[in-house]
TrEMBL record:
This is E2 ubiquitin-conjugating enzyme. The keyword Cell division applies. PANTHER family: UBIQUITIN-CONJUGATING ENZYME E2. InterPro entries: Ub_conjugating_enzyme, UBC, UBQ-conjugating_AS, UBQ-conjugating_enzyme/RWD. CDD domains: UBCc_UBE2S. It comes from Perca flavescens. Accepts ubiquitin from the E1 complex and catalyzes its covalent attachment to other proteins. Catalyzes 'Lys-11'-linked polyubiquitination. Acts as an essential factor of the anaphase promoting complex/cyclosome (APC/C), a cell cycle-regulated ubiquitin ligase that controls progression through mitosis. Acts by specifically elongating 'Lys-11'-linked polyubiquitin chains initiated by the E2 enzyme UBE2C/UBCH10 on APC/C substrates, enhancing the degradation of APC/C substrates by the proteasome and promoting mitotic exit. GO terms for biological process: anaphase-promoting complex-dependent catabolic process; cell division; exit from mitosis. The lineage of its organism: Eukaryota, Metazoa, Chordata, Craniata, Vertebrata. Residues 157-235 are annotated as: Disordered. The active site is at C95.
C-alpha cells in the first residue's frame, strides 16, 4: 500500500507524529510499537497473545494504515501473522466496530490497539470474516480452541510474530523437510546409476562378444556350403 504522507495535511501529520511518539515511549501493556521514520502513516506493532486464550504465548505482528482522509475515516488494520480468529480474514484484514461505524476521530490509535487486543479475548462470531472460525466458536469451542492454538504455535511463537506475513490460510501447517543429506541425491550423476552404467557396459561387452562368435559361425557355415557346391559340380 502506498504512503499517504503527501495526502495528509501538515496539522494531521503533526498530530499523528505526536501520538505515535507517545505510543512508542509508553506503549499499552502487551503491545510493542515499531514506528517508521520514513512513513508515519503506517504503524507496525506486535501484540502478545492474552493469557487464558488459544493465542497465549504467541506474538502477533499487525499494522495500522492511515488513509488520506484520516482522522475523519478510521485506519485499516491487518494482522501480518497468521491467526485463526473469527474477526480476521484470510488476508489478515480485521473486522472490529472501532474500525468501522464506532470510529470517532478523538478515539486515537491507542484505543484502536487496545480494542484489537481485546478482540483476541472476546471474539465476535456475529461479524465473522473467517466463517469457519465463527461457526466453530459457536458450535464446537474445543475444536476452535485446538485450531487457534495450532496456528499460534506454528506462526506466532518463532519470534516477533513468527515468520508469517503471508495471506491467512487456516489449513496451513508444517511443510515436509527436504532430504539434503542423502548422498544418492547429492551426486551429479546419481550413485545408483553407477552400478547400472557398469552393468550396461558389461552387457555391452557380452553382446559384442556374442555377435562376434555368431559372425564366425556364419562364415564357417557359408564356406562349407560353397565347398559342397563345388564338389557337386565336379560330379
Amino acid at each position: 500500500m502506498n504512503s499517504n504522507v503527501e495526502n495528509l495535511p501538515p496539522h494531521v501529520l503533526r498530530l499523528v507524529y505526536k501520538e505515535v511518539s507517545a505510543l512508542a515511549a509508553d506503549p499499552p501493556e502487551g503491545i510493542k510499537i515499531y514506528p517508521s521514520e520514513e512513513d508515519i502513516t503506517e504503524l507496525h506493532t506486535a501484540i502478545e497473545g492474552p493469557e487464558g486464550t488459544p493465542f497465549a504465548g504467541g506474538v502477533f505482528r499487525m499494522r495500522l494504515v492511515l488513509g488520506k482522509d484520516f482522522p475523519a475515516v478510521p485506519p485499516k488494520g491487518y494482522f501480518l501473522t497468521k491467526i485463526f480468529h473469527p474477526n480476521v480474514g484470510h488476508k489478515g484484514e480485521i473486522c472490529v466496530n472501532v474500525l468501522k461505524r464506532d470510529w470517532k476521530a478523538e478515539l486515537g490509535l491507542r484505543h484502536v490497539l487496545l480494542t484489537i487486543k481485546c478482540l483476541l479475548i472476546h471474539p465476535n462470531p456475529e461479524s465473522a470474516l473467517n466463517e469457519e472460525a465463527g461457526r466453530l466458536l459457536l458450535e464446537d469451542y474445543a475444536e476452535y480452541e485446538s485450531r487457534a492454538r495450532l496456528l499460534t504455535e506454528i506462526h506466532a511463537m518463532g519470534g516477533h510474530g513468527g515468520t508469517s506475513g503471508a495471506p491467512q490460510d487456516p489449513n496451513d501447517g508444517p511443510q515436509p523437510k527436504k532430504h539434503a543429506g542423502d548422498p544418492m541425491k547429492r551426486a551429479g550423476p546419481s550413485a545408483a546409476a553407477v552400478p547400472a552404467a557398469l552393468g550396461n557396459g558389461a552387457n555391452g561387452a557380452s553382446t559384442t562378444t556374442s555377435n562376434s562368435n555368431s559372425s564366425s559361425t556364419n562364415n564357417v557355415a557359408g564356406k562349407k556350403k560353397a565347398d559342397k557346391k563345388r564338389a557337386l559340380r565336379r560330379l
